[in-house]
Amino acid sequence: MPEGTMKAWLESSHLSGANATYIEELYESYLDNSQSVSAEWRTLFQQLPKIEGADLEFRHSEIRNEFKELAKQSHKTVVVSGSSDAKQVKVLQLINAFRFRGHQNANLDPLGLWKRDKVRDLQLSHHELSENDFDTEFNVGSFATSQDAMKLGDLYNALKTTYCGSIGAEYMHITDTDEKRWIQQRLESVQSQAKFSVEQKEEILKGLIAADGICKYLGAKFPGAKRFSLEGGDALVPMLKELISRAGTQGTKEVVIGMAHRGRLNVLVNVMGKNPSKLFDEFGGKHDEILSSGDVKYHQGYSSDFVTPGGNVHLALAFNPSHLEIVNPVVIGSVRARQDRRGDKVGDTVLPVTIHGDAAIAGQGVVQETFNMSQARAFKVGGTIRIVINNQVGFTTSNPQDTRSGEYCTEIAKMVSAPILHVNGDDPEAVILATQIALDYRNEFKRDVVIDLVCYRRHGHNEADEPSATQPLMYKKIKKHPTPRQLYAQQLDTEGSVSLDKSNELTAYYRKLLDEGQCTVEQWRPMTEHSVDWTPYLGHDWDDDYDKEISVEKLKELAGKLSTYPESHPVQGRVKKIYDDRVKMASGEKLLDWGMAENLAYASIVDLGKRVRITGQDSGRGTFFHRHAVLHNQDDASKYLPLQNIREGQGPFDIHDSVLSEVSVVAFEYGYTTAEPAGLTIWEAQFGDFANCAQVVFDQFISSGEQKWGRLCGLTMLLPHGYEGQGPEHSSARLERFLQLCADHNMQVCVPSTPAQVFNMLRRQVVRPMRRPLVVMSPKSLLRHPLAVSSLEELSTGVFHNVIGEVDDIDPKKVTRVVFCSGKVYYELLDQRRKSEQENVVIIRIEQLYPFPEVELQAELAKYQHVKQFVWCQEEPQNQGAWYCSQHHFRAAIPEGTYLTYAGRKASAAPAVGYMSVHVKEQQALVNDALSVED
């Protein structure tokens, strides 16, 4: 087709938006058979961009976008100075190539060690263009500039400046067109180069001086001490200060930060405003407060206020252990609690910031889990700012080829279409621009965003390491490489913004602050009432008096609200039967089962105005079809929650089926409870053994957070436990692991056996002022066991019985054997004893295994002081369950001169057998052994 004819045809109405569907159908036909369309269309399709390495459908989607853009631009006349229409299409293709792949040729490595091949797509020749076309004007399509057309030479330089400078932007993987257009506008309109005032540049310089200054000061004052220096990644300090200041200006009231070791001391002093004299005391072995164990300096958290143009922002740096990345869901959970308390449903007021290592973000699965949670209803917080301190080494001696399979450490972020801004850590102005774009994107679209701060590590993994042993070339370069402070100070002096003399004055002033032990953060302010008040929950003991009782009348009222739903909301048949029974339970016609008592506990809590939050993989219904807190309309799938309709002004009731994860969800809920002590927060395992996957959270946060960091937590964990013949993986919640973690009265481990017990146990967790974690070995078969029922009167006492004595009328004088047990095995023992008509054996349930109820048990045993035979009976193998961890408690409680024996399965590597016939045989044998019944 002649060029003039093609141009005229392009400028006709064929490309208008109204014809989009027709054009797509034409293109589908062309893909199948190029001869099936007219010559004009065939010529145009042949000139459209080819995306290298993409499959056919991907190319089609790109071309559909190209058509949409051409339609938008159809009102503009192509500005041509002898150019061909074919080259015009190539120019648009060139723009797209830089958007897709410009980051691969960006100047990101401060050390200049990266060996990166030239990207063919970014070369003029690849698009059949050359420098001979530089003076020709072309329409620039959607390229964000004030001009409709540019000379190719100017456009090419603008593209390289925008996409191949100190910022390498990855965002074309984002599926939302508005988000991509937004990022294009922000980058292309300034060609990735921000303009800062002299005052702003001086503020950036101060941040670099501070980052450099504290590292050198600590190195000189405490040589050889571990400090996990930030040196090389100094831009993190001005980055965080800009992030907080800009967030405050935009209405943020709180910022919660989570990070590992690298740079933590720097952030504590130079961002959070921790007094350096306190840090120096810690290096010297002095501590203001003595916790039962304490923790090392680079695990410590801190809270302060930071003044911004929009008002004070409350800062919280989370405490965290060495376990890489596990603090991230803790931080996000804390943010969700703070947002819920503020009534913020979109994430405007509280901002989460997580700081990662380059090897850690690529290597730790919990990162994927938190990305996956980021838009889920139970866990969304309006997006997280994720900063990677990419020192290009990873940890001790690693190399990128050993720590990941992708080109970048940030590939994981693409799973949720998060934009990734790679930025050269030696260009602090580019770092600040990337920070501004990241925050504004997060606040605009409420989604995660990643800043990859490409830097280096001046020392080894810790200051005692010798990194040149394993990275000789890198560390030769680092030794000669100027610090970020030196580079920026020289840049400002050269451009006439800030003289070297002024830089030296600022450096001397910072050193003076350190020498005098003064706060180094000008924006620091004393804390005001931004965070929750923990005062009501401090200094309490387990037995402190509190308002326990609840009247039967009140229970009936709550039960009535709990057991009704609108007639216009039809429910599934089995669920209707459950609710019909609950109506009878509410009136007292029928004893309460487990599901009714549990829901009634929640109703009594929200009636007090307190929040109830429950997450788990089947929480709404209940894994074992017992809870049914969420009623699904069988006609339109709408939902009705009776617990959200107890009364006007009640406390919130939130129940969510969680993502299929344990470690990230448990960590999230731990974080939630550390920021929300007033209500009841529950994580429920689908099966108790699934808690294995969250073991790090139990070990390093739940069991020891108070001892290490003074952090209280009232998280409740429901772990279905009980030997029902379902095999090794769905029997045991690993009771022994939790008991092994018990010390210093750090948590409660309970095994309730009746509906009244679960009601009062859950309610006690809120109405009692003490806040400690609660681990519950919750039942499966007891949910519908005919003997596991309770009356409203039993609930109304408000008392959780740590020990339950014999329930049958057995004369204590005739007793020759006392059997201790916990959980569902009690009902099997009871059934067998009744069948055997034994009157010489009593069964005592220990419902709380920790803190061990020694006083209550001794009181119960007072009537059996003549008995010589005491037995602990459990379903678990001998090396598991409560036997090894608790037998010293049992022995201490029984009378002197008596002995304690074990009745249960023999020691085993597996938690349970996999064959039902063997299970039944073993179960009957341990029951008979406990009761001394011959087979």
From TrEMBL:
It comes from Colwellia hornerae. GO terms for cellular component: cytosol; oxoglutarate dehydrogenase complex. GO terms for molecular function: oxoglutarate dehydrogenase (succinyl-transferring) activity; thiamine pyrophosphate binding. The keyword Repeat does not apply. This is 2-oxoglutarate dehydrogenase E1 component. Its cofactor is thiamine diphosphate. Belongs to the alpha-ketoglutarate dehydrogenase family. GO terms for biological process: tricarboxylic acid cycle. E1 component of the 2-oxoglutarate dehydrogenase (OGDH) complex which catalyzes the decarboxylation of 2-oxoglutarate, the first step in the conversion of 2-oxoglutarate to succinyl-CoA and CO(2). Keywords: Oxidoreductase, Thiamine pyrophosphate. The lineage of its organism: Bacteria, Pseudomonadati, Pseudomonadota, Gammaproteobacteria, Alteromonadales.
